[in-house]
Design a protein that fits this description.
Blueprint (H helix, E strand, L loop, with lengths): L3 H14 L18 E3 L4 E2 L6 H16 L3 E3 L8 E17 L6 E16 L4 E15 L11 H22 L2
Parallel strand pairs: 1-3, 1-4, 2-4
Antiparallel strand pairs: 4-5, 5-6
Helix pairs in contact: 2-3
Length: 173
């Protein structure tokens, strides 16, 4: 009878081992032979100047800091896979208005992107044609201290996009 609690605890541990839970980032759905990923500059079909550079740079940085993969810029450099991305659109719209002046007080930014990871053999390893990211920033009412906040906002969005993309690729979502 005294052994019953120990037996129950042991059975519980044994059952928990097969439950399928795992720590994030340790169950990659990518092929084991994948060592090098080419990440050329994303395409930009939006009207936002150089937004593709921000997003491409953030994705490269995220892969370098979070994974063991070697990153190159072109497929010709012997990559096992290539990550192709495109910024489809970037839209900025006034979100709130100042009731005294009638001017916009904040701006909402939405970025639409698509990404595909293709293996050397042509097999699609990951594909998401519809990433959508939102952020918002405040506009200054004082023209003497005006600072354009769209670039820092796009930088934040690019980092969020990169974190999400790399997590999705590694976890197979």
């Amino acid at each position: 009878m005294r052994r019953m609690p120990y037996l129950a605890a042991w059975l519980l541990c044994l059952a928990a081992q097969g439950c399928g839970y795992h720590t994030s980032g340790h169950n990659s759905q990518l092929p084991a032979n994948l060592k090098t990923i080419a990440i050329p500059a994303f395409l930009n079909t939006s009207r936002s100047y150089r937004i593709e550079q921000l997003f491409t740079g953030a994705v490269v940085q995220e892969f370098l800091t979070r994974t063991h993969y070697s990153i190159v810029h072109e497929q010709e450099q012997g990559a096992d896979a290539i990550l192709r991305g495109a910024i489809l659109n970037a839209i900025s719209t006034p979100a709130t208005y100042d009731s005294k002046t009638g001017r916009a007080a904040s701006v909402s930014v939405t970025v639409y992107a698509k990404v595909t990871l293709i293996g050397r053999d042509g097999k699609v390893l990951y594909d998401n044609p519809s990433y959508i990211f939102h952020d918002q920033y405040q506009l200054s009412n004082d023209l003497s201290t005006f600072f354009e906040e769209d670039t820092p906002t796009l930088q934040r969005m690019s980092r969020d996009f990169a974190r999400t993309l790399v997590s999705n690729i590694l976890e197979g979502f």
